[in-house]
Design goal:
Oligomer: single chain
Strand content: 15-25%
Largest sheet: 3 strands, antiparallel
Number of helices: 2
Number of strands: 5
């Protein structure tokens, strides 16, 4: 017995079986919500860092003047799962 759903084929007067939708695995995301309201997210912390860095360059350049250790601490305190 076939499982799936019947779907119409465009331009043809017949139906074909399409496999039933399989559940997709959700990819956990990491995010930071800036004090200015900007929400930034990516699949990993490593992918999130350049996004946050660009936002800091564009919007909050004074943060980039802080010592790297302090910037890393701020990141670690604010990053969270989505």
């Amino acid at each position: 017995m076939r499982t799936g759903v019947l779907l119409p084929v465009r331009g043809i007067r017949r139906f074909v079986y399409a496999p039933a939708a399989t559940p997709t695995k959700e990819i956990p995301m990491r995010a930071i919500d800036c004090d200015c309201g900007k929400h930034m997210e990516a699949e990993t912390d490593e992918a999130l860092v350049p996004i946050v860095t660009q936002h800091m360059k564009d919007t909050h350049p004074e943060v980039l003047e802080l010592p790297v250790e302090q910037q890393q601490k701020m990141f670690a305190e604010r990053v969270h799962d989505v």
